[in-house]
Amino acid sequence: MADRKPLIAGNWKMNLNHLEAIALVQKLAFSLTDKDYDKVDVAVLPPFTDLRSVQTLVAGDKLRILYGAQDLSAHDSGAYTGEISGAMLAKLGCTFTLVGHSERRQYHHEDDALCNAKLKAAFRHGLTPILCVGEGLPIRQEGRHVEYTLEQLDGALSGIPAEQAKSIVVAYEPVWAIGTGEVATPKDAQEVCGAIRSRLAESYGDEVAQVVRILYGGSVKSGNIAGIMAEPDIDGALVGGASLDAGEFVKICRFGE
Ligand code: PEP
């Protein structure tokens, strides 16, 4: 691996109220040490309603845990009931925001054009987007997973300049492996993550491709993270279910050790 610092990000999805969020971050803070943070960036992605609590805790205790949101609006302000803007997330001290998680694509019909607008919104407010891409089972069975995932990547990155593209994080999350217990083999994950890096090199040049962090996501646990992290183009993991258990998440941050 080039000298990309691994990132382990916990997507809490629609779980944990703000008190439970505080308890989980406190447990993580208690277990993770400077040695861990020197080796890996650790982030949590709580529901919007927990962000203020996490901010208070992290800033107040000067914790090294990073945090971010699970989504953002493509708009900056105005009559968009129920939406949360990048400006609001930045004000809450967020570092990251997910864009295009498969559950947003599936339940909220988010397409590549909307992901592109959301990426641009994230950049306007200094947030680092974690762009989620990945194929469903039928596409995998047809053997079109690489082509399909690269189309999502190209669509989302349309018009994004190299200066911004180099700070993006890409998460390859095959939909059939999310929340199913069905983990892609390290080789399967590497095949697509390697193709993503090659496509970034074609689109933006090697310099950008070598600094972009590419994560794998899909039923990551302490028992399978080591194999995934051994692959050359995988720079960390986006962790759903297992990020709700502090002990398990800390083990994942230590790559299963
Ligand atoms: C996710 O929500 O991004 C995810 C990868 O979930 P899980 O780890 O539960 O499969």
From TrEMBL:
The alphabetized list of GO BP terms reads:
gluconeogenesis; glyceraldehyde-3-phosphate biosynthetic process; glycerol catabolic process; glycolytic process
**What top-level class of enzyme does the UniProt entry assign?**
isomerase
Residues annotated as binding substrate:
N11, W12, K13, G179, S219, G240, G241
Give Gene Ontology CC terms: cytosol
The molecular function GO annotations come to: triose-phosphate isomerase activity
Task: Report keywords, A-Z.
Answer: Cytoplasm, Gluconeogenesis, Glycolysis, Isomerase
What is catalyzed by this enzyme?
A: D-glyceraldehyde 3-phosphate = dihydroxyacetone phosphate
The protein's annotated pathway: Carbohydrate biosynthesis; gluconeogenesis; Carbohydrate degradation; glycolysis; D-glyceraldehyde 3-phosphate from glycerone phosphate: step 1/1
Give EC number(s), comma-separated: 5.3.1.1
User: Main localisation, per the record?
Assistant: cytoplasm
**Known function:** Involved in the gluconeogenesis. Catalyzes stereospecifically the conversion of dihydroxyacetone phosphate (DHAP) to D-glyceraldehyde-3-phosphate (G3P).
Family membership, please give it.
Answer: Belongs to the triosephosphate isomerase family.
Oligomeric state and interaction partners are given as: Homodimer.
What NCBIfam families has UniProt attached to this entry? tim
Name this polypeptide is given: Triosephosphate isomerase
The organism named in the record is Thermobispora bispora (strain ATCC 19993 / DSM 43833 / CBS 139.67 / JCM 10125 / KCTC 9307 / NBRC 14880 / R51)
UniProt lists the gene as tpiA
